[in-house]
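1st attempt posting a full record on here, be nice pls
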Amino acid sequence: MSETLRLACDGCTVGGLTVPAFRLCAGAAICLHLPGRLDAPAGQALVEVLTGKRPAPGVQRFGRVLYAEPATSPTTFLGLLRQGRLTPPRPAEWLQRVAGLSPTDSAAVVERLGLRPQWRLSQLAMNPRTLLGLEAVWAQGADAVVFQTAGCDPAGLRRVFEAVTGHLMECAAVYLSFEFWQDDRIQRNHLSGAACLEVTDSTGISEPLAPVEGGS
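the predicted structure (as C-alpha cells):
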C-alpha cells in the first residue's frame, strides 16, 4: 500500500467534538465514530474541517479531499427557479451540473447504478442518492472522500461500502459513522478493514440517543 499521505490530523477540537490524531494514506480508509448525528452543527463543522472549507490547527490535506454529499435538489418551486428549473433534475442532469460530466458519461453512471434515466432526484431513496454523491466526487478526481450512510438500508449500505472499497486505490476514504437505535440498542456501522477512531463530545452535554419509532 502506498504511504502517500492524503489527510493528517494531529488531534483537534471542532464545534465541541474532539477528533483524535490520525494519518490517512492513499489506498486506505478510516472510520470516525461520531457521538451523535452528522446533521448536527458540530458534525457539519467536522466535514468542513476535513475538506478544508474551515481552517483548523493540526489538520492538513495532501490533495483534494471532498465530501460526498448525497444527491439532492430543491423541493420548493422557488428553490427550483433559483436553479433555472421548473422540475427536479434527473440523476444524469445532476451529475452534469455537480461533477461536470458529459451527457454520455453521466448516462453511463446512471445505467451502471441501475437507475431509470427518466427518474428525478425527488423520486430516489437514500441508497441511490448516496451512490450518486460518491460518483460525483470520484468524477471530480478527489484524492480522498469523506462520506456517510445516513438513511441507507442494509442493501444500500453494502453497495456503498463495496463501491468505496473498490475505489480506494485511487481515492482514500473517511467514513463518518453515527449512532443509531436498532434491535433495542445503540449500534454503529463499520467499514470493513478500516481503522476505527472515536470522536468524543468535549462539551459533555450531549444527550443520550433515544429510540425512534419506526426505524433508525
